[in-house]
User: What shape does this take?
Amino acid sequence: MGDLLGVAVLGAGHMGADHIRRLDQVVSGARVVAVADPDAARAKEAVAGIEGATAHTEPAAALDAPGVEAVLIASPGPAHQEALLAAFARGLPVLCEKPMVPDSAGALRVLEAEARLGRRLAQIGFMRRYDAEYRRLKSLLDDGRLGRPLMLHCTHRNASAPPDFTSAMLIDSSVSHEIDAARWLLGQELTSVTVLRPRPSSGAPRGLLDPQFVLFETSDGALVDVEVFVNCGFGYQVRCEAVCEAGSARIGDEHGVLVTTRGTAGTRVPQDYLVRFVDAYDREVQAWVDATRRGRVTGPTAWDGYAASVVAEAGVRSLESGARVPVELAPRPGLYAGGGR
Assistant: This one.
């Protein structure tokens, strides 16, 4: 196993457990050598059956475990800043799940820490960039056949949200994916956010502002709207339509098996993001492993993670105030010149 990339995984919850399975059973060229989770029993369960993998309750212990050459961070967002800085201090390449850091000040600290190193170590887990449909849409927009993009219409629906989900999390957790996707697809920064609040759904927990309608303006005059509805009740749906000067293109329509029976016809709607985007997660982690083994870092950068945090934070302010909120980014460090979007 000496030629396999030794990975420490921080966090063994829903996302972390799926990444541990992926590294152990799906991805080639890597192996899990350490897992850290505050729940000792969960950490031990996560490494059960993985030869040579050790379980820890402290992230630092996992980072310092023998054989660790890279880190995958899948712990809750508030723990990301400390974990990223610890990985940087050890010179370890990192794949960090979004959000890179939930608050913009912390995200800026991570960005500046990596910039001081003078080399990239972090890839941020915006996995939609690895989804086949999103990649086809990106290619269409980049080759210019549809003309200049004017609008993106986006839909983000979940069957249900966890009981601790807050109104702000519709923006900084759910819509953060659309924030990065819009920046990447259009090659533009988002310059302002307006959040509108329709009457909450009767299916939403009391006090949760669900659904929401989010409107972004971009640096080149395009508009991006997002309907986010995290308690729609029927399944998980993510759609995106680009409207351009010479045509439009839409992704996210269900194209599974059409079943017709007893006077009805329909397809199955995925109930979970790990089902809808399983291939994207597989490609993302495989690309990270392959690049890391070559001594390279590719994919979404710390600048992308920082920008998403700033935009999301502006969106939460708009949710609270009802006003249009400008997005103000710090100057982009030279390390990320030509990258990012």
